[in-house]
Amino acid sequence: MKVVLQNLTKRFPSRTKNEPDVIAVNDFNFEIPDGKLIGLLGPSGCGKSTTLNLISGLEAPTSGKIFFGEDDVTRLPPENRGVGLVFQNYALYPHLTVLDNILFPLQNLKGPEKLSKQEMRERALHAAKLVQIDTLLERKPSELSGGQQQRVAIARALVKTPRVLLMDEPLSNLDARLRLQTREEIRRIQQETGVTTIFVTHDQDEAMSISDMIVVMKDGVVQQIGAPQDVYDNPVNLFVATFLGTPPINVFDGEIKGEKLYIGGEAVLPKPGLPDQKVSVGIRPEGFVLDENGPFTLNLSRVEVMGRDTSVVSTHPKSRNVTIRSIIPTRNKVDRTAKTVRFSLVPDKVHLFDEKTDKALGTEEKP
Ligand code: ADP
Ligand code: MG
Fold first, then answer.
1. How many angstroms separate the CA atoms of 298 and 344, rounded?
2. Which of 11, 12, 16, 56 is the best mutation target for the ligand 1 pocket, counting ligand atoms within 8 Å of the beta carbon and taking the most?
3. Secondary element (H or E) of residue 201
4. pTM score
5. Which of 133, 156, 163, 219 has the highest CB neighbour count under 10 A?
């Protein structure tokens, strides 16, 4: 089911005179294609949950419209929208067994939707199999691990075959290993069911790894929408560039002078066609190539070998981060006793931003 958000805005009025209203979602426009998994991504407080609550109907928008396919659902109550919801804290009924938790949403169906006991059981078993908890049906939630509880919550959200599945930070309560495993599971389940899914997270790694498309938000405003790799490769502004990527992009104060990019006194890259100006420079950790004759000199702090890759930690007077991280193949040996380390730069991995607006520069040099 395609989901369309049209000029969607949510304003929470302030409770006191001194505080301004909060615009949690500001003029959100997006058409979510049928059957895709969309990662809604941004720092805490940027309006992710509010967006999801508007789509589910738990909150009413201040203005704007929501469509599921051709249906305008903006004024429809949540129970009539056909959405499945999964939250961070599972929200299972503690006194019910796994099976009864999954059956619960089916027991309140009325009229033509009403199911026989047999049909309900079949549907619940199907959902339990899908999330691989069909051997635990008689347990209570307290007898399950966090990951298993979240599977039950997902099965419960899927049992009514929702038109849209909405997940709000579903993995945040799980430990690191389980988080990795469960996100793969969510991807598998989404692909098996083909249900249009919106997955909210503040974890860029999580969103990048399982989404068909990501939406990056900041302060209620959508910054960029696209396939994860496209957004990573072509960030529209400095915020998106710094929010995506681990280790994060390294940011420097730079300057274009005579069609060259300078960082400090060194001309680190040719930049034909760009007028002289001050710029913010973002260099991805993988954009540094160890090169004893390279144009960019960094002060070497330490070298961390991490198996296949090596992380070179350094400093530079023009760096906005305390330390700079470059990732190079471990077979390229760094002289650990040296005070400095020299690199050449991979042009695609160097991003320039307007010093004042933080907007990406240099789109004019692309074909
Ligand atoms: P996120 O899920 O990205 O962390 P939220 O959507 O929960 O962000 O919140 C976005 C902004 O809206 C925050 O500034 C938050 O304080 C505010 N907000 C959320 N819910 C309410 C509410 N019911 N009343 C007032 N302000 C709210
Ligand atoms: Mg939230």
1. 11
2. 12
3. strand 196-201
4. 0.92
5. 156
Residues with CB under 6 A from ligand 1: 12, 22, 24, 42, 44-50
The residue behind tokens 């074909």 is: 367
Give the pLDDT confidence score for residue 365 in this predicted structure.
41
Domain limits, the chain? 3-242, 243-354
Using one digit for the tens of pLDDT, what is the confidence trace for 268-302?
Answer: 999 999 999 999 999 999 999 999 999 999 999 99
Nearest atom in ligand 1 to 220's CA: 10
Q: Look at strands 83-87 and 164-168 and give their pairing.
A: parallel
Closest residue by CA, ligand 1 atom 16? 45
State the Cα–Cα distance between residues 353 and 279, nearest whole angstrom: 6
Angle at 52 between CA 82 and CA 66, to 5 degrees: 65
User: How many residues does the structure list for the chain?
Assistant: 367
| Other CB atoms within 10 Å distance of the CB of residue 44 | 8
